[in-house]
Write a structure and sequence with these properties.
This protein is mainly β. The protein has nine helices and 67 strands. The strands form ten sheets. The protein has a 32-stranded mixed sheet, with no helix packed on it. Strands 51-53-59-61-63-65-66 form a seven-stranded parallel sheet, with no helix packed on it. Strands 12-14-16-18-20-22 form a six-stranded parallel sheet, with no helix packed on it. The longest helix is centred in the first third of the chain and has 28 residues, at about 1-30. The termini are far apart.
Length: about 1000
């Protein structure tokens, strides 16, 4: 009994001690309240900002600080350690973490902020707020215990402060994506620079500086950060060579240096120990071949190397990466076959192989990647019908098969791909009608079927089924569209619509209720009459590009003073029959073309408000008067100015009075007078200057030779006079390839020193045919618009003016005909081995034809007629095996005509008017006294209304740069013919334009 009582006592005693121990333990584990000073600092920090729901972009954002309360307020929440977003040390109660990402904070911050009183902070996250373009306060250096700092996407501005480099304990830093609404970079890392940052913050594991303006090389010291696991340097303006040693960092899992277009680099030999998971190199100049060892990256999930310069074969080892779910090799220079081992990548969700040089006809392994969401096979030389194996890819959201040679009909089984949001079949050889089942794909947002051979009728009401459709391209097929007249209550709201060459005869009525269009193209249809008044009301706040070219439009139902679309960037009204005054686009316009119409009157002063213009094409109208001097304001942005073939008069206005980008000036076929303004010498980017067929009274503008990029100079049919002054080293015309001084009043000797130094004319052409053009682009939110301006010109050839719609960049020509040059033909002309056309006819040249002309082996047209040349025709001219046109008529040449090769193709008209010449093709043989020479006939006799096919088709070597590559068009034309030839050309847009690329 006593023993039992004793045992009960011990049990009670142990229970008492256990209770006391638990009580003491609970008491010791209770988290202390936060410090009053820190609570006060947080409340003052809160009060320095507004709560604005537009300050954060994350859909899950909410105002975390809204629950913060002071001690004086009743209810719970007075302990700051319990506040949303606040983290405290469990032992000391000090605030060690502030997690306010996506908290709707709006306002400025500086070094006096109470935030920097929280000196125990280890983690600070203020990302996805709006700090009103404040600079990162230098007081951030007071937070010496900070290990993690995230200020991304928060509209900070200016130089990253030096004090931040004192935070030596940092292991995580994210300052990325501080940009304004237009995408401009706000933060910069210059002084200190990236090297300074890396040298001071040596414990970094994660470094994210994407879209920070760094503008430097990548320091090799980055390879010393042995703990680094993630490096993000997207779009930082990096250049130079990427240090290959960074790939060897032992812990590196994420590497992104994409969209640094001047960054070069090569991939190393990879080791199996590499932990790399995400590799983003797209939009750089990385080059070379993909190493076979890339197959060792067993942890790789993402490989994105699109838009680089990689070459060679795609290694089959890529198909041995079991974790790979995202593969983008597009827009490189890969060749050969696409390896069938890619069939092993069964967990791929994104595959893009577009725009390479693959030798692909079919892809029999396609269809085994059943988890694919995105498939990009644009421009990979696919042939045959659309592969039926695609039916296995039931999860596909994007299917891009455009720009191949696919044939057959659009299959009806596409309707089984019910998840499709984007279908691109453009620029193939598809035929037949568009299957009605295609309109059952109710999730479609983008549908591109343009530039095929599709036919039949498309009924607009079918489109009403595609309620999510935003972009539709049906241009350049053989389709007819059946109008849709209704209230359009269910018609999809489009932002992009292309209906070029769709046999439209009127503006589609459904456009009346399209208020979100950004891009509208109705070019090359048969729309007659005036532009209806209701067109001014569609998409007034959204329209960016409008193309109505190549129709039969005569004017405006109600002519607005200024066209109403205030966001308009691109307006094409060319190749119509518009009458009346010049339409004035809004000041926002970048590109304006209204060529080949019947517009009259003067250029209105309102046009001078268009100070953002990149191109202005007003040629081939009946515009008159003087060019307003205020148009010189365009010089800063303008690249191409074409006012040719009008009735403008007066002096040429001063141009390039401010820094400028002008590359093309065409004022030809007007009535301009006076001299060429010397301010053109400031147009240092000028490549193409055409002033022909005016009344300019001046000496040869030697000073234009200082322009470093001038390729084309056409001054024909003016009143240029005097001798061409001696060559000067400062006026060398270093890039000149085409010069036309014909039909002026120039005198003196031919400028032999110029011929010796025109180095660009000494270059022979390459293997690829390219055309002279000015390329640029302009950007705006949601779009990157390329602006490509093909150079065009007219030159006299064989007594006819011919229009060169495109000018090959290898084409080289000299036309000094129709002047009063005298003396001999310089032998230095023989050094211009790139020449394709040489015309010195109708001058007073004398002496012999130099044998050095035989060195011009690329020459296709040689005209020395109507001079006073003597002696024999050099045998060396037979070396010119591309020569298609030859004229030495009306000289004093003697002796036998060379025989063989190209000379066997020339008719007697090439030699007549030289009594001393003999032999074929003339009717009298050499040494014969019986035959008498025929009367010389002018080359100008006969019809000039026919295309001289002999000129085009003759030629031993068939180089035909002049004849076929460029193409000749007669200057006389009817409206219908010209529209049929040029007015209905598809204006191609880049994928960035159609899809709104904003990366």
């Amino acid at each position: 009994m006593c023993l039992f009582a004793f045992m009960c006592f011990l049990l009670l005693l142990s229970s008492f001690y256990l209770i006391m121990a638990n009580s003491n333990s609970s008491s010791s584990m209770q988290q202390p309240l936060c410090h009053d000073s820190e609570s006060s600092a947080l409340l003052q920090f809160k009060q320095s900002f507004l709560i604005n729901e537009y300050a954060s972009g994350d859909p899950s954002a909410y105002p975390k600080v809204a629950t913060w309360k002071s001690h004086r307020e009743e209810g719970e929440g007075s302990d700051c350690c319990s506040w949303d977003g606040v983290e405290c040390d469990r032992e000391t109660g000090h605030v060690i973490g502030l997690h306010l990402a996506s908290s709707y904070l709006y306002g400025s911050i500086n070094s006096s902020s109470t935030l920097f009183n929280l000196v125990h902070l280890r983690r600070l996250d203020l990302s996805d707020n709006h700090f009103n373009y404040s600079e990162i306060p230098s007081a951030v250096g007071q937070l010496s215990r900070l290990r993690s700092l995230n200020l991304s996407m928060s509209r900070f501005f200016g130089q990253i402060p030096m004090e931040l480099l004192a935070l030596s304990k940092l292991v995580f830093i994210d300052l990325s994506v501080n940009i304004d609404p237009s995408g401009n970079l706000l933060l910069k890392l210059h002084k200190p620079d990236l090297r300074n940052l890396v040298q001071n913050l040596t414990h970094l594991k994660l470094l994210y500086l994407s879209l920070v303006d760094i503008s430097s090389t990548i320091p090799y010291e980055l390879a010393n950060l042995s703990s680094l696991t993630s490096l993000g340097l997207r779009g930082c303006g990096l250049y130079g060579e990427f240090p290959m040693t960074i790939f060897r960092l032992p812990s590196l899992q994420v590497l992104s240096v994409r969209y640094n277009p001047y960054l070069i680099g090569y991939l190393p030999e990879f080791q199996e120990t590499s932990p790399l998971k995400l590799l983003y190199l797209s939009g750089t100049r990385f080059s070379g071949e993909l190493p076979i060892s890339i197959g060792r990256l067993g942890s790789l999930i993402v490989l994105d190397i699109h838009s680089c310069n990689f070459t060679g074969l795609v290694p089959s080892s890529l198909g041995h990466l079991p974790q790979l779910s995202y593969l983008d090799l597009s827009s490189n220079f890969f060749s050969g076959q696409i390896p069938s081992s890619l069939a092993n990548l069964t967990i791929l969700t994104h595959l893009s192989l577009s725009f390479n040089d693959f030798n692909v006809w079919t892809l029999p392994w396609l269809g085994q990647q059943t988890k694919l969401i995105f498939l990009g096979l644009l421009g990979v030389n696919l042939t045959g019908e659309i592969p039926s194996s695609l039916t296995n890819m039931s999860q596909l959201s994007t299917l891009n098969l455009g720009e191949n040679q696919l044939s057959g009909q659009i299959p009806s089984w596409l309707m089984n791909l019910t998840q499709l949001t984007q279908l691109d079949l453009e620029e193939n050889q598809l035929e037949g009608s568009i299957p009605s089942s295609l309109f059952e794909l109710i999730n479609l947002q983008y549908l591109y079927l343009h530039s095929n051979y599709l036919n039949g009728t498309v009924r607009f009401h079918l489109l009403s089924k595609l309620k999510n459709l935003t972009q539709l391209e049906l241009s350049n097929n053989r389709l007819s569209l059946l109008s849709y007249n209704s209230t359009n209550a269910t018609f999809p709201k489009l932002n992009h619509l292309g209906l070029n060459e769709c046999n439209l005869t009127e503006f589609p009525d459904f456009l009346r209720n399209q208020h979100e269009l950004e891009w509208l193209s109705l070019a090359g249809n048969n729309i007659h009459g005036t532009i209806p008044r209701w067109m001014w009301n569609i998409s007034r706040e959204t329209l960016i590009a409008l193309d109505l070219s190549g129709n039969f439009l005569t004017g405006f139902d109600q002519h607005p003073v200024v066209l109403p679309w205030f966001r308009l960037r691109r307006l094409y009204l060319d190749f119509n029959i518009l009458q009346g005054p010049l339409p004035i686009p809004p000041p926002s316009t970048f590109q304006y073309s209204v060529t080949r119409n019947k517009l009259t009157g003067k250029i209105p002063p309102l046009l001078c408000n268009m100070t953002s213009l990149i191109s202005l094409y007003l040629s081939s109208n009946n515009l008159s008067g003087r060019i307003p001097q205020c148009m010189a304001n365009f010089s800063k942005s303008l690249i191409a100015l074409q006012l040719g073939n009008n009735n403008f008069d007066g002096p040429i206005p001063e141009t390039c009075t401010v820094p400028n980008n002008l590359r093309v000036i065409d004022l030809s076929e007007n009535q301009f007078q006076g001299q060429i303004p010397r301010s053109l010498a400031n147009c240092v980017m000028l490549e193409h200057l055409v002033l022909g067929n005016n009344q300019i009274d001046d000496v040869f503008p030697l000073w234009l030779g200082a322009l470093p990029h001038l390729h084309v100079l056409i001054l024909r049919s003016n009143k240029f006079h005097g001798a061409i002054k001696s060559w000067h080293t400062n006026f060398r015309f270093p890039s000149l390839r085409i010069i036309d001084l014909s039909n002026n009043e120039l005198i003196g000797d031919l400028p032999y020193e110029y011929f010796q130094n025109w180095d660009a004319m000494k270059l022979t052409g390459g293997d690829t045919l390219r055309y002279m053009q000015a390329n640029t682009r302009f950007e705006m939110p949601g779009y990157i618009m390329p602006a490509n301006f093909m150079y065009s010109m007219t030159m006299t050839n064989k007594g006819m003016q011919r229009l060169y719609e495109k000018v090959p960049d290898i084409f080289t020509a000299i036309d000094f005909s129709g002047n009063n040059f005298e003396g001999s033909i310089p032998t230095s002309l023989g050094s211009l081995k790139g020449l394709h056309l040489l015309n010195l006819g109708n001058n007073n040249l004398s002496g012999h034809i130099p044998s050095s002309l035989g060195n011009l082996t690329q020459l296709e047209s040689l005209d020395l007629s109507k001079n006073k040349l003597s002696g024999e025709i050099p045998l060396q001219l037979t070396w010119m095996t591309f020569l298609e046109f030859f004229n030495v008529s009306d000289n004093n040449l003697t002796g036998p005509i060379p025989q063989g090769k190209q000379f066997s193709t020339f008719s007697d008209t090439s030699f007549e008017g030289n009594p001393g010449l003999c032999g074929t093709p003339l009717s009298w043989a050499c040494g014969s006294s019986e035959a008498s020479p025929p009367t010389a006939s002018s080359l100008e006799q006969g019809s000039t209304s026919e295309f001289d096919w002999k000129f085009v088709l003759m030629g031993y070597g068939s180089g035909l740069v002049i004849g076929v590559s460029i193409g000749y068009y007669l200057m006389s034309w009817k409206h219908e013919w010209f529209v049929g030839t040029f007015g209905k050309q598809q204006r191609k847009w880049t994928r960035a334009e159609r899809m709104g690329l904003t990366s």
